[in-house]
């Protein structure tokens, strides 16, 4: 390969790499207000400070209520906490949890219901027999309810986004790689110190 062609190939490779690394998605920094009167939140568990839980908070100014709504498909979003970097996720039992790593369980279909209230249903799971979608739900006690119980006509399933600003972010798949790397490093450190990984 000539020097000129080699130089062009290297420049093209660098250009592709830079485009991959640059923020590509318009994410909305927002609070999600439940129709039950609480805001979706993430915080450390009172029982185990190493565990992060998804819950409700009545303080609209609390930093724990700040999330990024990141588009990851057609009318599909991921909900990432601004402080912890964890994602709101739903497992195969319909349980809502905080995931350090982005994956299929972190994808929710966003449907605008009425008066801009939104419903977030799991893209991965639904009722095995009726095929009814499983929704993100938050009750008046600040607890997330299982997707199988969060029906679309109930207040527990309705959230009103309170957008603060639009931000450019990388695709969650890139953050997943970073998260896996950090997780691996943490596991190695914990093995040395004798601590258990979160």
Would you spell out the secondary-structure blueprint of this structure?
Layout: H1 3-21, E1 25-34, E2 39-44, E3 52-57, E4 67-73, E5 76-81, E6 87-90, E7 96-99, E8 108-112, E9 118-126, E10 133-135, E11 137-138, E12 144-145, E13 159-169, H2 172-193
Question: Could you please describe the fold and organization of this structure?
Answer:
The protein has 198 residues and is of the alpha+beta class. The chain has a single domain (25-171), classed as Trefoil (Acidic Fibroblast Growth Factor, subunit A). The chain contains two helices and 13 strands. It has a seven-stranded antiparallel beta sheet with strand order 10-9-8-5-4-1-13, with no helix packed on it. It has a two-stranded antiparallel ribbon with strand order 2-3. Strands 6-7 form a two-stranded antiparallel ribbon. A hairpin with a 6-residue loop joins strand 9 and strand 10. The radius of gyration is 19 Å and the shape is globular. The termini are far apart.
